[in-house]
Design brief:
Elements (H helix, E strand, L loop, with lengths): L1 H18 L5 H22 L8 H7 L2 H27 L11 H9 L10 H16 L11 H8 L1 H25 L3 H24 L3 H28 L2 H8 L2 H13 L4 H21 L2
Helix pairs in contact: 1-10, 1-11, 1-12, 2-9, 2-10, 4-8, 4-9, 5-8, 6-13, 9-10, 11-13, 12-13
C-alpha cells in the first residue's frame, strides 16, 4: 500500500507538470483536488468511518481538538499547494520533489523543544544522509567547485519553493496527527480534503474563465491518482508500521526522478538517483527513531 501511494503520488505530479503554465497553476491544483474527492467518498460509502451513527452524527460527536487542528492546518495547506504547484512548473522534477524529504528533518530539529523529545544518533545520521542526498542531486556541478551543488540549490526556484513546502508540511503533519487521533484516518481525509477544495475554490476562480474544460481534461488523471495516493496512505496507516510506511512512501522521490528523465529528458540521472536513494535512507533512519 505504501509503495502504491508513492507511485500514485509521483505519477500524479509528473502528469500534472505537463499541463502547468503561467496563469493556470491554481486552477489545475484545485481541479486535481476535485477529481480526488470522489474516490474518498466512494471509500467512505464502502467502509463508513462513522459506523452506524451516520456522517452528521459522527461529525457532531468529534472532539474540539479535531476542528482546531483542521482550522490550523488548512491555511498552511493552501499555501503549500500553491508553492508545490509552482515548484512543479518552474523546475525539473528531479530538483523539486526530493526536497520534500526535509519534512522529517524539520520535525526532528524541533524534537528537543517538545516534551520528551530528543536527538539521537540514528536521527543525526538520518539528517546527514538527507543533506548528502541534497548535495548529490546537483553532483553534475562539481566541476565548478565543491560548493557548486549547494549554490545550485539556491539558484533553482523549484528547489527553494519545495524546501518551503517541506517546512509547511512539518506543521501540517502535526495538525493531521492530532486530527487523526481524534477521529480516524479516512474520516480525517474526507473532511480535510473537502474543506481544502472549498477553501481553494476562490483562488482558482480567476483562472477558470474560458479554461474550465481544458483544466478538467488536464487534471482528471492526475486527480484520480491523487485520490488513490490519499486512500493508499490511509490504508497504510492501518496496515503497516508507521516508520516503514513513511520511508516507503517517500520513495516517491525516486519515481519522480525517473519520470523526470523518461518524460522530460532531465539530465544527471545517476547523481539524482544516488542523491534520492541517500535521502530515502535518511528518512528511514529518522522515521525509525521518531516517536
Amino acid at each position: 500500500m505504501a509503495l502504491a501511494c508513492a507511485l500514485a503520488n509521483a505519477t500524479s505530479d509528473a502528469l500534472l507538470k505537463r499541463s502547468l503554465r503561467p496563469g493556470n497553476e491554481r486552477l489545475l491544483a484545485w481541479a486535481r483536488l476535485g477529481f480526488a474527492l470522489p474516490l474518498l467518498y466512494l471509500a467512505c460509502a464502502v467502509a463508513p468511518p462513522w459506523g452506524a451513527a451516520g456522517p452528521a452524527a459522527a461529525l457532531a460527536a468529534l472532539p474540539r481538538p479535531f476542528f482546531v487542528a483542521i482550522a490550523l492546518g488548512l491555511p498552511l495547506e493552501v499555501a503549500a499547494v500553491l508553492l508545490y504547484t509552482r515548484a512543479l512548473r518552474r523546475s525539473p522534477l528531479g530538483l523539486t520533489i526530493p526536497f520534500l524529504s526535509l519534512t522529517p528533518v524539520f520535525l526532528l530539529a524541533a524534537a528537543p523543544f517538545t516534551p520528551g523529545g530528543r536527538l539521537t544518533g540514528g536521527g543525526i545520521a538520518g539528517v546527514a544522509l538527507v543533506a548528502a542526498g541534497g548535495y548529490l542531486l546537483n553532483a553534475g556541478r562539481l566541476r565548478e567547485g565543491w560548493l557548486a551543488p549547494v549554490r545550485a540549490i539556491g539558484r533553482e526556484p523549484g528547489s527553494r519553493l519545495m524546501i518551503l513546502v517541506a517546512l509547511i508540511y512539518a506543521a501540517t503533519s502535526t495538525c493531521g496527527k492530532v486530527a487523526i487521533a481524534a477521529s480516524s484516518p479516512l474520516l480525517f481525509a474526507a473532511v480535510y480534503f473537502t474543506a481544502l477544495f472549498l477553501l481553494f475554490a476562490p483562488l482558482a476562480a480567476a483562472e477558470a474563465r474560458g479554461a474550465g474544460w481544458t483544466a478538467a481534461r488536464a487534471a482528471l488523471l492526475p486527480g484520480l491518482l491523487y485520490g488513490l495516493m490519499i486512500l493508499s496512505h490511509v490504508a497504510s496507516l492501518a496496515l503497516a508500521n508507521v516508520a516503514y510506511m513513511i520511508a516507503v512512501k517517500r520513495s516517491s522521490l525516486l519515481f519522480a526522478i525517473l519520470y523526470g528523465r523518461l518524460l522530460y529528458g532531465e539530465r544527471g540521472l545517476a547523481g539524482r538517483l544516488a542523491g534520492g536513494a541517500a535521502m530515502v535512507a535518511g528518512i528511514a533512519l529518522i522515521a525509525g527513531v521518531s516517536p
